[in-house]
Amino acid sequence: MLEDVINFTEAPIDEAKFTEECRKELEQKGVVTLHNFLKPETVKELVREAKSHSDLAYFTDSTHNVYLTPKNEALSPDHVFNRQLTSSKGCITTDQIPEASKLKKLYFSDIFKKFICKVVEETDLYEYADPLSSINVHYAAKGQELNWHFDNSKFAITLLLQAPESGGHFEYVSNLRNAEKNEMNFDGVEAVLKEKTKINRLDTRPGTLILFRGQNSIHRVTPTEGGKERILVVLAYNSKPGISLSEEARMTFFGRLQ
Ligand SMILES: O=C(O)CCC(=O)C(=O)O
Ligand SMILES: [Fe+2]
Questions:
Q1: Which listed residue, 4, 11, 190, 233, has the most CB atoms within 10 A of its CB?
Q2: Is the CB of 145 under 6 A from ligand 1?
Q3: Is the shortest distance between the CB of 232 and ligand 1 below 6 Å?
Q4: Cα 218 to averaged position of ligand 2 atoms, centre (Å)
Q5: b/e string for 68-101 if b means 16 or more Cβ within 10 A?
Q6: Rounded to an integer, what distance in angstroms lies between the CA atom of residue 110 and that of residue 131?
Q7: pTM greater than 0.85
Q8: 62: pLDDT strictly greater than 90
Q9: At what angle do helices 110-120 and 16-29 cross, to 10 degrees?
């Protein structure tokens, strides 16, 4: 039952009025935050489940530019396009999440997909064709962070399961570039990296769902502080069936292809 997963009183995602409010909010702000989206007992269950599989997590200490692209040798090594940032992220993949998990119930639910379709203005949404990329559980222990980047995908859905004692904040600057027009906004990115721009921070708590347009909005997650790890779920969909995450990205994030 989806009612066991989603708190429909706080987030009536099956209602047209609520759905339209979320669509408008995403259009205007590039982000929708739904607190208490997950039922408290579901959060507890999912934390327990995530912890029981954390030994399977693949951790990478990767370096990347903010655009998540290979270097451009035509530009100097210290050009902002080539600036290398470090991220340490560990996650488990769709195939490592139990079939009976409430995460799968949510991800494959028609009601949830229909809601997301309307909010992001897509006709249909499909799972990834590869067995790894649709649902990921991320773990960030003390000192681990996800550095500044723009996403490759048009939108992302996250669910925070466990917040650290401090740190682990999701920070962003909206509409810093225009990927559709191939605008990179090097000066804008430079200003963010030098912390000369006003940076926004999202208020997120265990059970909060965030729907975020990260392709044009630069964002990061600050280092976890304290002994309690940050645990977060990413749900990813495609607008067309049969699409796999690129082999390069799968090797970087998961260390394997399947
Ligand atoms: O951990 C988060 O809150 C955001 C994750 C993220 O930005 C990403 O996976 O691209
Ligand atoms: Fe991201």
A1: 233
A2: no
A3: yes
A4: 8
A5: eeeeeeeeeeeebbbbebebbbbbbbbebbeeeb
A6: 20
A7: yes
A8: no
A9: 40
Index of the ligand 1 atom closest to the CA of residue 220: 7
Residue 234 Cβ inside 6 Å of ligand 1? The answer reads: yes
Task: Give residue for tokens 């048009």.
Answer: 154
Place of tokens 């499909």: 126
Please choose from 138, 145, 235 the residue to mutate so as to test ligand 1's pocket, defined by most ligand atoms within 8 A of CB.
138
CATH architecture of 2-254: Sandwich (2.60)
| Ligand 1 probe mutation, 213, 216, 220, 234, most atoms within 8 A of CB | 234
Read off the pLDDT of each residue in 134-143 and give the average, rounded to a whole number: 96
pLDDT tens digit sequence for 213-233: 999 999 999 999 999 999 999
Question: Cβ(235) to ligand 1 under 6 A?
Answer: no
pLDDT digits (tens, 9 = 90+) for 153-210: 889 999 999 999 999 999 999 999 999 999 999 999 999 999 999 999 999 999 999 9
pLDDT at 61: 81
Please name the amino acid found at residue 249: A
Name the 3-class secondary structure at 10. coil
- For residue 151, give the nearest of 199, 92, 213, 94 by alpha carbon: 213
